[in-house]
Amino acid sequence: MSGRTTALAPPDGAEPPVRHPDAPAPGEVIGSHYEHCFGCGGGVPHGLHLEARAGEGVSVTAEFRVKEAHQGAPGLAHGGVLATALDETLGSLGWLLRVIAVTGRLETDYVQPVPVGTVLHLDAAVHAVHGRKIYATATGRIGGPEGPVAVRASAVFIEVKIDHFIENGRPAEIQAALADPDQVKVARAFEVNP
Ligand SMILES: CCCCC/C=C\C/C=C\C/C=C\C/C=C\CCCC(=O)SCCNC(=O)CCNC(=O)[C@H](O)C(C)(C)COP(=O)(O)OP(=O)(O)OC[C@H]1O[C@@H](n2cnc3c(N)ncnc32)[C@H](O)[C@@H]1OP(=O)(O)O
Protein backbone atom coordinates (compact mmCIF):
# COMPACT_ATOMS: atom_id res chain seq x y z
CA MET A 1 0.00 0.00 0.00
CA SER A 2 1.28 3.45 -0.89
CA GLY A 3 0.46 6.53 1.17
CA ARG A 4 -1.56 7.95 -1.73
CA THR A 5 -5.10 9.00 -0.95
CA THR A 6 -7.69 9.57 -3.64
CA ALA A 7 -10.18 11.11 -1.18
CA LEU A 8 -12.43 13.79 -2.62
CA ALA A 9 -12.31 15.85 0.56
CA PRO A 10 -9.37 18.27 0.75
CA PRO A 11 -6.75 17.19 3.33
CA ASP A 12 -5.60 19.27 6.28
CA GLY A 13 -3.35 22.03 5.01
CA ALA A 14 -5.27 22.54 1.76
CA GLU A 15 -5.51 26.21 0.73
CA PRO A 16 -8.38 28.15 -0.85
CA PRO A 17 -7.91 28.51 -4.63
CA VAL A 18 -6.39 31.74 -5.98
CA ARG A 19 -7.80 33.24 -9.16
CA HIS A 20 -4.90 34.06 -11.49
CA PRO A 21 -4.59 37.81 -12.27
CA ASP A 22 -4.70 37.03 -16.01
CA ALA A 23 -7.73 34.75 -15.74
CA PRO A 24 -10.55 35.47 -18.21
CA ALA A 25 -12.97 38.09 -16.84
CA PRO A 26 -16.30 36.92 -15.39
CA GLY A 27 -18.69 36.30 -18.29
CA GLU A 28 -15.89 35.81 -20.82
CA VAL A 29 -16.07 32.67 -22.95
CA ILE A 30 -13.25 30.22 -22.29
CA GLY A 31 -12.14 28.85 -25.63
CA SER A 32 -11.60 25.20 -26.46
CA HIS A 33 -8.24 23.84 -25.28
CA TYR A 34 -8.01 21.43 -28.24
CA GLU A 35 -10.01 21.34 -31.48
CA HIS A 36 -10.30 17.55 -31.34
CA CYS A 37 -11.42 17.37 -27.71
CA PHE A 38 -14.64 15.36 -27.44
CA GLY A 39 -15.87 17.72 -24.74
CA CYS A 40 -15.15 21.16 -26.19
CA GLY A 41 -13.56 20.81 -29.63
CA GLY A 42 -15.25 22.29 -32.69
CA GLY A 43 -13.69 19.59 -34.89
CA VAL A 44 -15.64 16.67 -33.39
CA PRO A 45 -19.05 16.33 -35.12
CA HIS A 46 -20.64 14.25 -32.33
CA GLY A 47 -18.73 15.96 -29.55
CA LEU A 48 -20.40 17.90 -26.76
CA HIS A 49 -19.23 21.33 -28.06
CA LEU A 50 -19.27 22.62 -24.54
CA GLU A 51 -18.57 26.33 -24.22
CA ALA A 52 -17.58 27.40 -20.73
CA ARG A 53 -17.66 30.95 -19.37
CA ALA A 54 -15.56 32.28 -16.56
CA GLY A 55 -17.45 33.07 -13.36
CA GLU A 56 -16.47 34.91 -10.20
CA GLY A 57 -13.61 33.57 -8.11
CA VAL A 58 -12.49 30.21 -9.42
CA SER A 59 -15.76 29.14 -11.02
CA VAL A 60 -17.21 28.56 -14.48
CA THR A 61 -20.58 27.98 -16.11
CA ALA A 62 -21.42 26.07 -19.29
CA GLU A 63 -24.42 24.85 -21.25
CA PHE A 64 -24.74 21.47 -22.93
CA ARG A 65 -27.64 20.58 -25.24
CA VAL A 66 -28.29 16.82 -25.20
CA LYS A 67 -28.53 15.50 -28.78
CA GLU A 68 -29.77 12.19 -30.22
CA ALA A 69 -26.16 11.04 -30.58
CA HIS A 70 -25.84 11.27 -26.77
CA GLN A 71 -28.58 8.74 -25.88
CA GLY A 72 -28.08 5.82 -23.51
CA ALA A 73 -31.76 4.81 -23.22
CA PRO A 74 -34.60 5.86 -25.54
CA GLY A 75 -34.75 9.62 -25.46
CA LEU A 76 -32.45 9.91 -22.44
CA ALA A 77 -28.85 11.05 -22.13
CA HIS A 78 -26.17 8.42 -21.50
CA GLY A 79 -24.71 8.72 -18.00
CA GLY A 80 -21.17 8.57 -19.36
CA VAL A 81 -21.90 11.49 -21.67
CA LEU A 82 -23.22 13.49 -18.71
CA ALA A 83 -20.07 12.57 -16.77
CA THR A 84 -18.06 13.89 -19.73
CA ALA A 85 -19.98 17.19 -19.63
CA LEU A 86 -19.24 17.49 -15.90
CA ASP A 87 -15.59 16.49 -16.43
CA GLU A 88 -15.12 19.02 -19.23
CA THR A 89 -16.72 21.82 -17.21
CA LEU A 90 -14.49 20.98 -14.25
CA GLY A 91 -11.47 20.78 -16.57
CA SER A 92 -12.02 24.33 -17.78
CA LEU A 93 -11.45 25.62 -14.23
CA GLY A 94 -7.73 25.29 -14.96
CA TRP A 95 -7.99 28.44 -17.11
CA LEU A 96 -8.83 30.47 -13.99
CA LEU A 97 -5.90 29.05 -12.01
CA ARG A 98 -3.69 29.14 -15.11
CA VAL A 99 -2.58 25.59 -14.59
CA ILE A 100 -2.94 22.56 -16.81
CA ALA A 101 -4.68 19.82 -14.87
CA VAL A 102 -6.04 16.37 -15.69
CA THR A 103 -8.81 14.46 -13.98
CA GLY A 104 -7.49 12.13 -11.26
CA ARG A 105 -10.81 11.15 -9.75
CA LEU A 106 -14.38 11.97 -10.74
CA GLU A 107 -17.45 10.91 -8.74
CA THR A 108 -20.87 11.49 -10.25
CA ASP A 109 -24.38 11.48 -8.77
CA TYR A 110 -27.30 11.06 -11.16
CA VAL A 111 -30.33 12.67 -9.58
CA GLN A 112 -32.81 12.89 -12.48
CA PRO A 113 -32.90 11.46 -16.03
CA VAL A 114 -31.95 14.04 -18.66
CA PRO A 115 -34.05 13.87 -21.88
CA VAL A 116 -32.69 14.49 -25.38
CA GLY A 117 -33.20 18.15 -26.28
CA THR A 118 -32.56 19.30 -22.73
CA VAL A 119 -30.11 22.11 -22.13
CA LEU A 120 -28.04 21.15 -19.12
CA HIS A 121 -26.92 24.24 -17.20
CA LEU A 122 -23.56 23.43 -15.65
CA ASP A 123 -21.55 25.24 -13.04
CA ALA A 124 -18.29 24.27 -11.40
CA ALA A 125 -15.95 25.71 -8.80
CA VAL A 126 -12.64 24.92 -7.17
CA HIS A 127 -12.86 24.70 -3.38
CA ALA A 128 -9.30 23.91 -2.36
CA VAL A 129 -5.79 23.28 -3.63
CA HIS A 130 -3.17 21.08 -1.99
CA GLY A 131 0.16 20.85 -3.81
CA ARG A 132 -0.70 19.64 -7.33
CA LYS A 133 -4.20 18.51 -6.29
CA ILE A 134 -7.21 20.64 -7.14
CA TYR A 135 -10.52 19.87 -5.39
CA ALA A 136 -13.64 20.90 -7.30
CA THR A 137 -17.34 20.21 -7.64
CA ALA A 138 -19.85 20.66 -10.47
CA THR A 139 -23.62 20.67 -10.83
CA GLY A 140 -25.88 20.24 -13.86
CA ARG A 141 -29.42 21.69 -13.71
CA ILE A 142 -32.32 21.42 -16.10
CA GLY A 143 -34.86 24.08 -17.01
CA GLY A 144 -32.48 26.98 -16.32
CA PRO A 145 -29.45 27.95 -14.23
CA GLU A 146 -31.62 27.86 -11.09
CA GLY A 147 -33.56 24.73 -12.12
CA PRO A 148 -33.59 21.36 -10.37
CA VAL A 149 -30.31 19.47 -10.08
CA ALA A 150 -30.03 16.54 -12.50
CA VAL A 151 -26.35 15.61 -12.04
CA ARG A 152 -23.55 16.42 -9.63
CA ALA A 153 -19.84 15.65 -9.49
CA SER A 154 -16.92 15.91 -7.11
CA ALA A 155 -13.42 15.67 -8.47
CA VAL A 156 -9.72 15.82 -7.82
CA PHE A 157 -7.69 17.22 -10.70
CA ILE A 158 -3.91 16.90 -10.74
CA GLU A 159 -1.68 19.65 -12.11
CA VAL A 160 0.62 18.51 -14.91
CA LYS A 161 3.12 20.16 -17.25
CA ILE A 162 2.84 20.19 -21.03
CA ASP A 163 5.30 17.26 -21.04
CA HIS A 164 2.45 15.09 -19.76
CA PHE A 165 0.87 15.33 -23.22
CA ILE A 166 4.12 15.29 -25.19
CA GLU A 167 5.28 12.12 -23.42
CA ASN A 168 1.96 10.29 -23.42
CA GLY A 169 0.16 11.48 -26.56
CA ARG A 170 0.32 9.75 -29.93
CA PRO A 171 3.22 11.33 -31.84
CA ALA A 172 1.17 12.21 -34.95
CA GLU A 173 -1.37 14.24 -32.95
CA ILE A 174 1.31 15.83 -30.75
CA GLN A 175 3.31 16.95 -33.81
CA ALA A 176 0.15 18.35 -35.42
CA ALA A 177 -0.72 20.20 -32.20
CA LEU A 178 2.77 21.70 -31.90
CA ALA A 179 2.63 22.81 -35.55
CA ASP A 180 -0.69 24.62 -35.00
CA PRO A 181 -0.13 28.25 -33.94
CA ASP A 182 -3.57 28.42 -32.28
CA GLN A 183 -2.77 25.36 -30.17
CA VAL A 184 0.62 26.76 -29.21
CA LYS A 185 -1.13 30.00 -28.20
CA VAL A 186 -3.39 27.96 -25.86
CA ALA A 187 -0.39 26.25 -24.32
CA ARG A 188 1.32 29.69 -23.91
CA ALA A 189 -1.78 30.98 -22.13
CA PHE A 190 -0.86 28.54 -19.38
CA GLU A 191 2.60 30.08 -19.25
CA VAL A 192 4.23 26.92 -20.42
CA ASN A 193 6.85 26.72 -23.08
CA PRO A 194 6.15 23.78 -25.38
C1 LIG B 1 1.49 19.78 -27.26
C2 LIG B 1 0.05 19.42 -27.11
C3 LIG B 1 -0.69 20.33 -26.22
C4 LIG B 1 -2.05 19.76 -25.96
C5 LIG B 1 -2.65 20.32 -24.67
C6 LIG B 1 -2.98 21.71 -24.85
C7 LIG B 1 -3.35 22.51 -23.89
C8 LIG B 1 -3.54 22.04 -22.52
C9 LIG B 1 -4.53 22.83 -21.84
C10 LIG B 1 -5.52 22.29 -21.16
C11 LIG B 1 -5.77 20.83 -21.19
C12 LIG B 1 -5.91 20.27 -19.86
C13 LIG B 1 -6.93 19.51 -19.49
C14 LIG B 1 -8.09 19.26 -20.33
C15 LIG B 1 -9.30 19.82 -19.73
C16 LIG B 1 -10.45 19.17 -19.70
C17 LIG B 1 -10.63 17.81 -20.22
C18 LIG B 1 -11.28 16.96 -19.20
C19 LIG B 1 -10.26 16.44 -18.26
C20 LIG B 1 -9.82 15.06 -18.65
O1 LIG B 1 -10.57 14.25 -19.06
S1 LIG B 1 -8.15 14.66 -18.44
C21 LIG B 1 -8.04 12.98 -19.05
C22 LIG B 1 -8.27 11.92 -17.99
N1 LIG B 1 -7.24 11.87 -17.02
C23 LIG B 1 -6.04 11.29 -17.24
O2 LIG B 1 -5.77 10.83 -18.31
C24 LIG B 1 -5.08 11.24 -16.08
C25 LIG B 1 -4.31 9.91 -16.08
N2 LIG B 1 -3.45 9.84 -14.91
C26 LIG B 1 -2.19 10.31 -14.90
O3 LIG B 1 -1.67 10.73 -15.93
C27 LIG B 1 -1.45 10.31 -13.59
O4 LIG B 1 -1.95 9.34 -12.73
C28 LIG B 1 -1.49 11.69 -12.91
C29 LIG B 1 -0.85 12.77 -13.82
C30 LIG B 1 -2.95 12.10 -12.56
C31 LIG B 1 -0.71 11.65 -11.59
O5 LIG B 1 0.55 11.05 -11.84
P1 LIG B 1 1.94 11.73 -11.40
O6 LIG B 1 3.00 10.67 -11.49
O7 LIG B 1 2.17 12.99 -12.14
O8 LIG B 1 1.72 12.17 -9.92
P2 LIG B 1 1.59 11.32 -8.56
O9 LIG B 1 1.12 9.95 -8.84
O10 LIG B 1 2.87 11.48 -7.81
O11 LIG B 1 0.41 12.12 -7.80
C32 LIG B 1 0.57 13.50 -7.49
C33 LIG B 1 -0.41 13.82 -6.39
O12 LIG B 1 -1.75 13.59 -6.91
C34 LIG B 1 -2.42 12.59 -6.15
N3 LIG B 1 -3.19 11.74 -7.07
C35 LIG B 1 -2.71 11.05 -8.12
N4 LIG B 1 -3.69 10.39 -8.71
C36 LIG B 1 -4.82 10.68 -8.02
C37 LIG B 1 -6.16 10.29 -8.16
N5 LIG B 1 -6.54 9.45 -9.12
N6 LIG B 1 -7.08 10.80 -7.31
C38 LIG B 1 -6.70 11.65 -6.33
N7 LIG B 1 -5.43 12.04 -6.14
C39 LIG B 1 -4.51 11.55 -6.98
C40 LIG B 1 -1.33 11.81 -5.47
O13 LIG B 1 -1.84 11.21 -4.28
C41 LIG B 1 -0.29 12.87 -5.20
O14 LIG B 1 -0.70 13.60 -4.06
P3 LIG B 1 0.39 14.00 -2.93
O15 LIG B 1 1.32 14.93 -3.62
O16 LIG B 1 -0.40 14.63 -1.85
O17 LIG B 1 1.01 12.72 -2.54
From TrEMBL:
Catalyzed reactions: octanoyl-CoA + H2O = octanoate + CoA + H(+); dodecanoyl-CoA + H2O = dodecanoate + CoA + H(+); tetradecanoyl-CoA + H2O = tetradecanoate + CoA + H(+); (5Z,8Z,11Z,14Z)-eicosatetraenoyl-CoA + H2O = (5Z,8Z,11Z,14Z)-eicosatetraenoate + CoA + H(+)
GO annotations of cellular component type: cytoplasm; membrane
GO MF annotations in UniProt: hydrolase activity
KW Acetylation (keyword) present: no
Top-level taxonomy: Bacteria, Bacillati, Actinomycetota, Actinomycetes, Kitasatosporales
Domain Thioesterase: 75-139
Keyword Membrane among UniProt keywords: yes
PANTHER family cross-referenced by the UniProt entry: ACYL-COENZYME A THIOESTERASE THEM4 (PTHR12418)
GO BP, one annotated term: fatty acid metabolic process
Compartments it resides in: Cell projection, Ruffle membrane; Cytoplasm; Membrane
A Pfam family annotated for this UniProt entry: 4HBT
InterPro entries in the record: HotDog_dom_sf, THEM4/THEM5_acyl-CoA_thioest, Thioestr_dom
Membrane topology: Peripheral membrane protein
Name by which UniProt lists this protein: Acyl-coenzyme A thioesterase THEM4
EC numbers for this chain: 3.1.2.2
Keyword set, alphabetical order: Apoptosis, Cell membrane, Cell projection, Cytoplasm, Fatty acid metabolism, Hydrolase, Lipid metabolism, Membrane, Transit peptide
Similarity comment: family membership: Belongs to the THEM4/THEM5 thioesterase family.
Region (Disordered): 1-26
